[in-house]
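Protein in question quoted in full.
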Amino acid sequence: MNYEQLITESALADERFIIMTAENRALIRNIPNNPALANRFVDTGITEQTMIGMAAGLALRGRIPVVHALAAFLTMRAFEFIRTDVGIANLPVKLTGFIPGLLSDGNGPTHQAIEDVSIMRGIPGMQVFAPSDEEDMLLMLPAIWKSNYPAYTRANLIKPLYQHDKNFVIGKAEVVAEPSTVTFLVYGMLFNQVLQAKEILEAHGHSVGLVNMRSLKPVDEQIIIDAAKQSELVVIVEDHFKIGGLYSIVAEVLLKHQLTANVHSISLQHKWFKAARLSEVLEHEDFTPKKIAAQTILALESTSKVKI
């Protein structure tokens, strides 16, 4: 099953579903050709703000609008509409952001959604999700779409390298390997890179934990606490600015519980990434498995680990 098949199945089973797009049909290309769904498909054109306003109105009438647009334009161009029309009213509009983070590989800064987690989680009531691959996304979406809250999901069509836990629960992380000497906290498409980095580190004798932080808001506070208490080093890996993403989430959780931990951030820090093919972006921005493993070893050996 793929995304289009899942949303088709869901919409046929529940007439409240309205499928919307701002002229971005990559995930839903064949929906308009389905006679049973043609009257529940709306393409507003390149008008993300209009789409969100319409979705809010439909949600007020008891519908479940699932909207699609490029992640950068959905979260930034339409931000005020999401905040005001959807967030303040706490309407169950489901936002699907296409090519978020490094998945916009060949696009320049204007098309890079690498602050999306930060701005979406800043809206009261908004839930935020970042599946690690296509399989993970398909496992998560039924629960996300059934939630009574507004939600933003980073769409991800990366092929899986890991068989995920099918029992997805909003607010719970997927523990691939229990917290250990080194524990990775990661979300989105970089999960595959970290999974391979874990194997490299284990081959060098390190004990490595790995957590798929696929639910970023609400977040699994307990696994963050466990990692902080049980690990010599917590490594946060994300294709997002260092500010506002998982690094900030972890800092907030540790401060809330009056804890400290040795933490290393592998992120885009404070810069946009250089546009290129995805493999080249991963290499240039130090997100390959080998480079993640090397950075982790240096951080583990360092006597000046960052504490938050």
User: Anything to note?
Assistant: Confidence is low (pLDDT under 50) at residues 303-308.
